[in-house]
Amino acid sequence: MAWSFDDTTRRNIASLCAAFARAPSGGAEPELKRAAVAIALTEAEAGGGTTFLLTRRAATLRSHAAQWALPGGRCDDGETQAQAALRELHEELGVGLGEGDVLGLLDDYPTRSGYLITPVVVWVGTSADIVPNPAEVASVHRVALDDIEREGVFSFTTIPESTRRVVRFRHAGHHIHAPTAALIYQFAEVLAGRDTRVAELEQPVFAWK
Fold first, then answer.
1. Does residue 207 form part of some domain?
2. What is the CATH number of the domain that holds 120?
3. Which of 25, 46, 107, 172 has the greatest number of C-beta atoms within 10 Å?
4. E strand intervals along 22-148
5. What pLDDT, in 10s, does the model give residues 102-136?
6. pTM of the model
7. Regions of the chain where pLDDT drops below 70
8. Mean of all residue pLDDT scores within the chain
9. Domain enclosing residue 120, as ranges
10. Which PANTHER family has this protein been placed in (predicted)?
11. Residue 189 placed within a domain
């Protein structure tokens, strides 16, 4: 379907998130550190369509440098996942939102690098200025929701180091891998009205550290 950027789309996505039955994360490894990312929905630069913000991490970062990522990071003590995602969105891209802009949460995703990531779907108004923090973000990209519904945009492969499938998301000539690809894949499935689980989808070896 076409995702125009308007109140109808906001309500529809909020309803889909509300209908999504999150998987319990009680079985997650206790040593995993809590983290959250924002699936930040905003208007396409050309206007009309709904997109989400995807970043390329700064090459100078100590971990996961130059990798594709959703805005986010580790939860501070006492923060909810939604609060952490909103704080990180502001720190990385200068976008200030409130908890009233949160549309819903997707499943927690355990990473090989020791985190349990909660994706938080948020609505960014057309008036929001996006100002990347160069210490953390090399570039910002708007990915159309229509694009993640296209056939073949997600693919699955295997690696010798694991029996689990590796998920990949193709964007702008690049293969984006899990964790980011897994979170985007589940969001695409939520948009289609499906409760698809992604915790068992594997990450490439370079993302294990």
1. no
2. 3.90.79.10
3. 107
4. 33-43, 50-57, 68-69, 72-74, 102-105, 109-110, 115-123, 137-144
5. 999 999 999 999 999 999 999 998 767 899 998 88
6. 0.94
7. 1, 26-28, 59, 61-66, 127
8. 92
9. 7-149
10. MITOCHONDRIAL COENZYME A DIPHOSPHATASE NUDT8, NUDIX HYDROLASE
11. no
